Here is the input.
Amino acid sequence: MTGLGPSNGSRPRSRRQHIVVAIVEDKPGVLMRVASLFRRRGFNIESLTVGHSEAPGLSRMTIVVDGESAPVEQVEKQLYKLIDVVKVSDLSQEDLIARELAMIKVRCNNLNRHELLEIANVFRADVIDIASNSLILQVVGYEDKINGLIKMCEPYGVREMSRTGRMAMARGTKTTTVHEAEPPKIAQIHASQGRRVEGELPFSSD
Amino acid sequence: MTRMTGAQMLLDSLQREGVDTIFGYPGGVVLPLYDTLPEFPGLHHILVRHEQAAAHMADGYARASGRMGVCLGTSGPGATNLVTGICTSWMDSTPVLAITGNVARTLLGKDGFQEADITGITQPITKHNYLVMNSREIPLTVREAKHIATTGRPGPVLIDIPKDVFQEQDRFEWPEQVSLRGYKPTLEGHAGMIRRAAELINQAKRPIIISGHGIIWGDAQKELVELAEKANIPVITTFLGISGFPELHPLSYGFLGMHGMYYANMAADEADLVVAIGMRFDDRAMGRFNAFNPGVKIVHIDIDPAEIGKNFPTAVPIVGDAKHVLPKLTEHVHEREHKEWIRWIDHVREEHPSLEIRESRRMLPQYVVRTLYEETSGNATIVTGVGQHQMWAGQHYFYNRPRQLISSGGLGTMGFELPAAIGAQVALPGQEVWAICGDAGFQMTLQEMAVLVDQRLPVKIAIFNNGYLGMVRQWQQLFYDKNFVSVAVTQPDFVKLAEAYGIKALRAETKSDVQSVIQEARDFPGPVLIDFQIDQEENVWPMVPAGAALSETIEAPAEEVAR
Here is the structure.
């Protein structure tokens, strides 16, 4: 799949990247439709993660797009044209939290294991497996932090690595979900206090 | 609840959705479906000779009637043969439902005989597609497919059904309504944007309307005429937009683009405001993007938000259906005259008439089209292939009724003409349908003449026979230093060929034959093929060379006019 390779690892998050979240129907072939759309339109994917969302039957995709390969507005509009894509949000402008998880299998021995454990400690990485000549570190965080840990592990020998790609969520009350009705009791309270609940569809031209 | 087989469910659902005709070709895995077909006498099955033609027929049927066309093929090669036709309707946004069979569920993914991953193959060229794995899902799938194909920006939808799903019995449940949370086309334009667009129109000194295929599919010809007349704005169309605005209307200035009228291209390039409606700023229409009319403001009205801002920055975007948006826009625009601006375009038209046909003893193709226009009083539905004859048919026939010109614009599919004309004739019984063909394109789908005989369809076939891939020859002459490679085509004797199929055939060898053969063909109640042996080296003018700007439109050089 062209354009689905991992990011080159050393590049920090920059303005040239866009984080797009797509809420999609949990149906066979959806991932292919999205990936194929990106390939066809020449949009480069830096990373893509998929998993269940809070709503049954809907999955959440977090796509990091190389902003130079595509105007983010076109990416959003083309994604939204797919029937199985229910909602698209560009989180690039949002105050957001982005995280990635990595598992790193590092070569080690009795002499240098304690050094690695110290490094892991500094990066708040967990040791999730240990053997006589290697250990697996699990780290969660921003790309820079993961890249930093990898760099520190390299002299020991990184035997294997697996990264999830970036996941993101806007801070505060704003959500990227499909609008669902509030629990009636809470809605009542909100209504009595004169609050309105947001629930517009994207691209209704307003 | 009634119990049915998957095949019964499919045919019952199609009938409930108003389908009356299926263009198809049987094969192994769709045999259960064909076995069931006689139970549904309301569904007329037309046996084609190649699945590609089935897809073009469904497309022609849709373009002529405005209703969804349906085509059907078996698994593997049957399905892949549909692909060119599906892509043709994808590029031109026409509502076609393609149904394919596939190998039984247990064999899917095992590379068995005649298996092809047709949902994977057609994913980028359909608006949506389905692989149905349970017979009980068929009714909802058909309803959704019809809804998706025919609403918003129309487009082809494919349903792939494994053989044993056709045979599987289950309860038939007809869904009362369709609701797709990921698909809600916007029809009403944004009121604030419509007011802003009206302000720009009211301020403009040199406004022009460029109307596209969306006017035809939005059924908005009347609304467009009202807008143009109120603000007195000249209208040019895209090639697929032809017939969206009546060409005999005083505000009509033809179509723009690579072979558009000189004055249409100049007007588009000179305007200070372009009101683009239901069109997508294709490169063949606009010339080189970065050289198009610098400083022009664009109001873009389209039902597909992704088209807005795709190729050109837009001053005012309006996402909506032309039929809903235009009356509101008309309400807000002022009555204007634009006298000076219209005088300017008229002056350009007098200097560069583009549509004047020169006196010649040769059988000029332009003359053939014009004679056909006169003989049919401008009332025929014209279906074309792709190439020189397509451009002449667009230029020299004048279209006033929407859906009167049917042509493959976006994909440019040679061989589209005959099957699409058959589809159009099925949709328009009793009306006059002409397939204008090139001699090369005709040879791509000529086997469908058999369908004309089978179905007793009175399509008139006019072959513009110059013995060349004419448009390719024109490009080799103009841009490849007359290095003519692989453009002279060997032909069968078209008259004998048609007669072998049992079709009446005529030949026009000289200019003086043209009128009489057209008359003879029109007088004959059945299908007729005419071999027009047109001038061999006539080129299409005006022309915007590939990569040039609209302002660089070239007209016929003096030596060609003198021929």
